[in-house]
Amino acid sequence: MKNRLLCTLIVAWAVPCTAETLRDPTQPHQVVDTGTVGGSTKHPMLTSVLIAKDRRVAVIDGVTLMEGSRGAGMELIEVSATGALVRKDGRIMRLTLSGANMTKERR
Predict the structure, then answer these.
(1) pLDDT tens string 69-82
(2) Would the pLDDT of 59 be above 50?
(3) Rounded to two decimals, what is the model's pTM?
(4) Following DSSP, what letter does each residue of 55-77 receive, concatenated?
């Protein structure tokens, strides 16, 4: 009897915990602008971009990623001259370029 009660309590406690992490796939992603978000939560930091005819690259938290690639727990969706769009932990974040470190390809 005690084991059955204990199992019931564990299941009853675990079900609401897992329901909080689910996201409705029909809802649009929330875009977080890390340039305006403050606080102690660590957000990825974009430090450099490179835009060429054949590739777009961003350096985020010291990791170099090509547009469309994954690494460092995130996916680089888009690179622009002023920032980048990344998906991390199921959220889409707009990173702004800190400083003027854009590299233009010379041809």
Answers:
(1) 999 899 999 999 88
(2) yes
(3) 0.56
(4) -EEEEETTEEEETT-EETTEEEE
Q: Are 58 and 79 in contact (CB under 8 A)?
A: yes
Give the separation between CA 9 and CA 78, rounded to whole angstroms. Answer: 46
Distance of CA 53 to the CA centre of its chain: 25
Beta bridge partners of 51: 56, 104
At 31, list the tokens: 């875009």
Q: Output the six-digit token pair for 19.
A: 């329901």
Closest CA to 34 of 95, 84, 83: 95
Beta strands in 16-106 (DSSP E): 31-33, 46-51, 56-60, 63-66, 70-71, 74-79, 83-88, 91-96, 102-104
CB 102 within 8 A of CB 48: yes
